[in-house]
Task: inverse folding
């Protein structure tokens, strides 16, 4: 996939190569998916292409290195930080670990003509520090605000031990993948169906000397199964939130059609935060959204909000709603019952996963849980990895 | 071959497409690196138009594959013409030919129906291949597409491998219905198409709406920019702007401030849902118009 219309990338000096490698690494640290092929192409562009002048370099690199809208939005700030050393926005700080050591050594490398043409190697780290302190710099202000948020956020990663978390994630991934494979086999062959499958009909006819006796039809296309997860993030669930969040992340990662909500005293739509590929980053983002975790759970109200504002959009005829909660509810049980009934009418299945079921002698006597139970299709434990794994056959049958 | 983005932008403008600098750069890189271009953006910002303009620029064919859920290889690549094959079998009955030669004849070029992807790689002159709304297709199809876009060859069991006679210029568009795979994104150049700014939208109107006054074009573009900031269920795209401008010009509008009544009456060109029409009342229209120069 190297540049077929370009050659001469060997003209690029060593210093420029190192500079470019540093930029690529910075992009990767900021969540860009950049591979070797892009770097090779970038070198080729630097040598002969339209990227000889700095003004053109930006546009060319943007088209080459960005892969999604979030990249697109971050790119200019990162580019400026690295190539021109202008004020650095908060995004750059995400990079953390390794971007510190390259620029300083590079400032001495002025033997390469390309380096001077592009501009001096920016001292990213130092300037980032300045921007933080500079009060008149709007970027600096934003940086301060995000640090305050960081202090207040809940760290989900520290809740469960790393091995179990990794296992849960892998399991959710596998579970979700197994289901997806089974469920995307659309266009199944049926005896009765509206569309004639001519390709198969003709193949079968060979045995009858070319007369199409056996007619093969295609069945109607089935809608994909969609999973909507409602995760209880209240204080009483504290010990489980971490591993559940990883589980939900796995589901969202593998399933094309999945939505996730988090509730405690109110309901938060967290799909976009959790769709982040990098699990740790996703959990960080969700941690910010879940502020105010703890305190009483008002499941009924959260469900009412879900039914009112989200249900019509996220639920279709083949939707399984999965509620992850211990059922301790400080709200009105009657309301919870009514909202559960409304939800039941909309979706195909409601699965309630309750970590307390695994405890010996547990009875769902809490008023809220008792009110919800009649509307639940599957009431299952979810306190260990095995209990989550046991769900697979059930979900696959849906 | 064009080697400068300004030159490219100018050539595109001659085909009726007003490109911004970033897009011109991306299109230039497409030529230089031979990579497909992925365009993302809201509906109605003119993603599909890019492919049309590119085809016009190179004076070549535009081959379009519209993606949808359940799209499979036979819809996208090739299919055998079964009806004709069945007829041929009947016609050969009793002719005394042996089975093998009949079969060879049945699975030959004559009975092959090209679908867009196969057609695109079998042209003499490299066409523009538009893979529209790729996010609507299934993941399996996306994986297949990836394979095709790296090798530009396909294998047809009965015929063997078909290698591209020309590498098409591939433009993919996505509305973000589904997250595309990293593999596909990495294979492509990327450009996020945003709503045009006021100056560019006015320029688009001057290119696309015959007989429009420069002042009116600018006013319309400004009003559209303000309108898009309102809380609308369906934000109007560039196509809507062009429709509306054409309607205004057709009804004899010269200046938005002087023809307020006309403006309000023709807003149906850009507001496509009942809620939006209810939201943009006469008062709101006046308020928006008040800010237009």
Result:
């Amino acid at each position: 996939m190297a540049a077929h219309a370009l050659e001469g990338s060997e003209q690029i000096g060593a210093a420029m190569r190192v500079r470019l490698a540093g930029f690529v690494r910075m992009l990767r640290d900021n969540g860009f998916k950049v591979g070797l092929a892009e770097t090779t192409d970038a070198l080729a562009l630097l040598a002969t292409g339209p990227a000889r002048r700095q003004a053109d370099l930006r546009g060319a690199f943007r088209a080459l290195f960005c892969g999604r809208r979030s990249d697109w939005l971050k790119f200019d700030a990162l580019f400026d930080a690295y190539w021109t050393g202008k004020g650095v926005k908060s995004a750059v700080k995400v990079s953390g670990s390794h971007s510190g050591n390259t620029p300083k050594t590079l400032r001495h490398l002025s033997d390469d003509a390309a380096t001077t043409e592009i501009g001096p190697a920016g001292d990213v780290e130092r300037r980032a520090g300045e921007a933080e302190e500079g009060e008149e710099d709007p970027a600096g202000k934003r940086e301060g605000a995000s640090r305050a948020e960081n202090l207040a956020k809940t760290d989900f990663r520290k809740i469960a031990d790393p091995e179990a978390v990794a296992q849960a994630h892998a399991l959710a991934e596998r579970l979700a993948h197994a289901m997806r494979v089974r469920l995307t086999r659309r266009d199944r062959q049926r005896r009765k169906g509206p569309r004639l499958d001519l390709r198969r009909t003709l193949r079968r006819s060979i045995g009858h000397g070319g007369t199409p006796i056996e007619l093969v039809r295609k069945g109607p296309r089935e809608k994909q199964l969609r999973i909507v997860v409602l995760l209880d993030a209240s204080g009483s669930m504290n010990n489980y939130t971490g591993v559940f969040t990883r589980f939900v992340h796995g589901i969202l990662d593998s399933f094309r059609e999945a939505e996730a909500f988090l509730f405690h005293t109110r309901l938060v739509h967290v799909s976009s935060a959790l769709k982040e590929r990098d699990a740790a980053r996703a959990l960080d983002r969700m941690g910010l959204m879940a502020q105010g975790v703890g305190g009483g759970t008002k499941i009924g109200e959260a469900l009412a909000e879900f039914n009112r504002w989200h249900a019509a959009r996220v639920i279709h005829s083949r939707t399984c709603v999965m509620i992850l909660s211990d059922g301790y509810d400080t709200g009105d049980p009657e309301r919870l019952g009514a909202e559960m009934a409304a939800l039941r009418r909309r979706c195909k299945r409601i699965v309630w996963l309750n970590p307390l079921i695994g405890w010996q002698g547990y009875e769902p006597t809490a008023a809220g849980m008792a009110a919800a139970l009649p509307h639940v299709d599957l009431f299952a434990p979810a306190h260990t990895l095995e209990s989550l794994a046991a769900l697979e056959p059930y979900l696959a049958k849906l | 071959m064009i080697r400068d983005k300004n030159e490219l932008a100018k050539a595109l403008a001659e085909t009726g497409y007003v490109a911004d600098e970033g897009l011109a750069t991306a299109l230039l890189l497409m030529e230089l690196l031979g990579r497909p271009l992925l365009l993302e953006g809201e509906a109605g910002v003119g993603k599909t138009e890019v492919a049309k303009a590119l085809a016009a620029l190179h004076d070549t064919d535009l081959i379009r594959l519209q993606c949808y859920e359940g799209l499979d290889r036979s819809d996208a690549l090739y299919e055998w013409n079964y009806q004709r094959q069945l007829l041929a079998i009947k016609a050969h009955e009793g002719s005394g030919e042996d089975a093998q030669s009949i079969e060879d004849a049945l699975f030959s070029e004559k009975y092959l129906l090209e679908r867009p992807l196969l057609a695109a790689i079998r042209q003499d002159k490299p066409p523009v291949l538009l893979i529209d709304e790729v996010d609507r297709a299934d993941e399996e199809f996306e994986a297949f597409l990836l394979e095709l876009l790296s090798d530009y060859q396909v294998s047809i069991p009965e015929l063997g491998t078909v290698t591209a006679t020309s590498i098409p210029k591939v433009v993919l568009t996505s509305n973000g219905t589904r997250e595309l795979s990293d593999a596909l994104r990495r294979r492509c150049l990327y450009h996020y198409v945003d709503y045009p700014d006021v100056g560019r939208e006015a320029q688009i109107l001057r290119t696309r709406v015959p007989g429009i006054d420069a002042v009116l074009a600018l006013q319309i573009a400004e009003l559209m920019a303000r309108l898009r900031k309102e809380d609308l269920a369906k934000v109007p795209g560039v196509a809507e702007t062009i429709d509306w401008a054409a309607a205004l010009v057709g009804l004899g509008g010269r200046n938005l401030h002087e023809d307020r009544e006309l403006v309000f009456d023709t807003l149906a060109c850009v507001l496509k849902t009942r809620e939006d029409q209810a939201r943009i009342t006469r008062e709101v229209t006046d308020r928006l118009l008040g800010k237009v120069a």
Chain B has a mean pLDDT of 88. Residues 5-68+125-149+167-192 of chain B form a domain with the Rossmann fold fold (CATH 3.40.50.300).
